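Please decode residue identities from the backbone states below.
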């Protein structure tokens, strides 16, 4: 498959103490670039997440958000930490003995005190497997979204490839006749301008010039590079860098075709080819 570097996925998993929510999104980048936004309680899971995501992706700027939402405690499950409550009562009395003007603790203050309903600290070791499990699910959705986007980009590129083939196929048969007519026109102008030079010498010079303006090699290389673009897209995988290199080669051949052109048809074809190559390059910038 061909993968785009643009993708998005989000997953939520309920655990005993709450819910884990992970979000993955990415844009194009020259290298694989991670940005993690993880709540402080789960910072320990970052290395494992980095390794997990790195096994599936090779390029792109990837942002990973991981949050933990504590579960709401049901009323029938409320059990006060009596030991902690007694200690707070003792502290409250001691403080007001020393500072008579101090107000007694409010019920809301007591209920919000950390640990009042038992040990509310997260068991990170127990959460790590759940974090990785929900990350794997999100990563699968994420890869699928990048695959769908990649298929669309590949279709656009193949459409441009087909158009380039049509252009080459249309102009190639007309090139020999057009160049022959140009050579004869050039020969006649030289004869008119230089009467002292014999016709054979002029024919030799025109023949040398004909070799310089021959574009058969460029046409052949264009077709070869287009074959390779199609092959790479069919093979799939991480192909963005290779396709980008092929765009450079195609652009080089199109430039040479234009510089050698002595007829309008070839010049116009070279310009259209360069436009199509640039359109393909824009799409390839988003491929992994």
């Amino acid at each position: 498959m061909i993968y785009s570097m643009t993708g998005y996925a989000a997953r939520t998993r309920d655990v005993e103490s709450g819910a884990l929510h992970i979000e993955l999104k990415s844009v194009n980048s020259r290298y694989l670039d991670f940005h993690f936004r993880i709540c402080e309680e789960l910072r320990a899971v970052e290395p494992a997440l980095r390794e997990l995501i790195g096994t599936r992706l090779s390029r792109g700027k990837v942002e990973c958000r991981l949050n933990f939402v504590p579960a709401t405690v049901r009323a029938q499950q409320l059990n006060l930490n009596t030991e902690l409550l007694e200690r707070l009562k003792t502290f409250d009395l001691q403080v007001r003995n020393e500072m008579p003007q101090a107000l007694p603790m409010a019920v809301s203050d007591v209920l919000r005190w950390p640990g009042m309903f038992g040990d509310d600290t997260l068991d990170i070791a127990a959460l790590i497997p759940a974090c990785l499990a929900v990350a794997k699910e999100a990563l699968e959705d994420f890869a699928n979204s990048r695959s769908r986007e990649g298929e669309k980009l590949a279709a656009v590129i193949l459409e441009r490839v087909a158009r380039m083939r049509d252009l080459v196929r249309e102009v190639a048969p007309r090139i020999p006749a057009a160049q022959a007519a140009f050579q004869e026109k050039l020969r006649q102008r030289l004869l008119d301008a230089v009467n002292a030079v014999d016709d054979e010498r002029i024919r030799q010079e025109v023949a040398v010039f004909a070799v310089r303006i021959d574009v058969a090699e460029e046409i052949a290389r264009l077709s070869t590079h287009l074959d390779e673009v199609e092959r790479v897209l069919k093979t799939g995988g991480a192909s963005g860098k290779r396709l980008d290199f092929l765009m450079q080669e195609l652009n080089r051949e199109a430039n040479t075709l234009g510089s050698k052109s002595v007829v309008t048809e070839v010049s116009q074809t070279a310009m259209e080819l360069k436009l199509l190559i640039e359109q393909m390059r824009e799409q390839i910038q988003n491929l992994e």
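Observation: The chain has three domains: 7-72+124-146, 80-111, 147-284.
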